[in-house]
Amino acid sequence: MSRSSQPPDLKKYMDKQLQIKLNANLLVTGTLRGFDQFMNLVIDNIVEVNDNEKNEIDMVVIQYLIR
């Protein structure tokens, strides 16, 4: 899949619980509340799981970066 193709349609995941793996093996779960054409995500009720530690966060925007 080339980077110039259309991003995935995330509408079917709206208001659903997602598990997202981020850089540095950081794992978060939360509810998808919004997104844009650049695949930036708005996630509500985030729970960050790091080893045996859990950290609850209210709402975040996860920015998609292409390297």
- Separation, N- and C-terminal Cα atoms: 16 Å
Q: What's the main sheet like?
A: 4 strands, antiparallel
Radius of gyration: 13 Å
Estimated structural class: mainly beta
Note the total helix count.
0
CATH class: Mainly Beta
Cross-sheet strand order for the largest sheet = 1-2-3-4
User: How many beta-strand elements?
Assistant: 4
Protein name: Probable small nuclear ribonucleoprotein G
GO cellular component, one term: U2-type prespliceosome
Subcellular location: Nucleus
Family: Belongs to the snRNP Sm proteins family.
Tell me about this structure.
The protein is mainly beta. The chain has strands spanning 17-22, 26-35, 41-50, 53-62. Residues 5-67 form the Sm domain. One of its GO terms (cellular component) is SMN-Sm protein complex.
How would you summarize this macromolecular structure in one to three sentences?
With 67 residues, this protein is mostly beta strands. Helix content is 0%, strand content 54%.
Write the layout of secondary structure elements.
Elements: E1 17-22, E2 26-35, E3 41-50, E4 53-62
Antiparallel strand pairs: 1-2, 2-3, 3-4
Properties at a glance:
mRNA processing; SH3 type barrels; 4 strands; spliceosome; 67 residues; 4-stranded antiparallel beta sheet; globular; Sm_dom_euk/arc; mainly beta; mRNA splicing
